[in-house]
Specification:
Layout (H helix, E strand, L loop, with lengths): L1 E5 L20 H17 L3 E5 L15 E4 L2 E4 L11 H8 L5 E3 L11 E4 L2 E6 L5 H11 L5 E6 L10 E4 L3 E5 L11 E4 L8 E3 L2 E5 L9 E5 L2 H4 L10 E3 L10
Parallel strand pairs: 1-2, 4-5, 7-8, 10-11, 13-14
Antiparallel strand pairs: 1-15, 3-4, 6-7, 9-10, 12-13
Amino acid sequence: MIAIVRGVPATFDRALTMAPLDRPIDVARARAEHAAYVATLRRIGAEVVELPVEDALPDSCFVEDCAVIAGGLAIITRPGAPSRRPETPAVREALARLRPVVEMAAPATLDGGDCLLFGDTLYVGRSSRTNAAGAGFAREVLAPRGIAVVEVPVASGLHLKSVCSPVGDTCVLVQAGALPPGTFPRELRVASAEAANVVVIGARVIVPAGFAPPLDLELFAVDNAELRRADSALTCLSILVPSAPSAPARP
């Protein structure tokens, strides 16, 4: 597995948040948490690709929102927040070495944090950041590759994956009460949004410190408390790309 990451910028204390913060974000602490996350990715077997830090883009460490990997493609998104759209070129350049790339255009908007791939279905959250045209673009490019797109209303929280994440093809962790039962074909309901968002590579799982879900897998806890203050979760911090195929081809 290849994990694309991007470090925490010096301007991270200006990252977008849904609600006012009670105190400024501690950038140094966020950087330490991110470094521990990257080290843990390597520890559990990922090949890490680190993009250059970009201090002009406060939210740029949340690389997941810039791309969706599905059906052998890398879809370069058009983030819902206009200030985040300059984040995509560096991600596109990195992914073009690994997958054929297709790029979303206006009026479509879509954040990768709204996209959950489970089996041959991509669930797309209809949030404040992802619109119908964004979901439609994903459906158009993925249908020929055997990937269905199912839209899921996001009633609370920033993204669909703010309250859920896949455990390979085994099940989807879901915060109890956040989504209607049966949203996904196999679900494991957990008590909190934090416990519902994990990063899985093989039989190893990165979980937020203090919020381990009941999984019969090897768990690796990392502290992401300061990073979470910018409306993030563990999955936001990387783009996971299966190692094969390694050479891009035309879509």
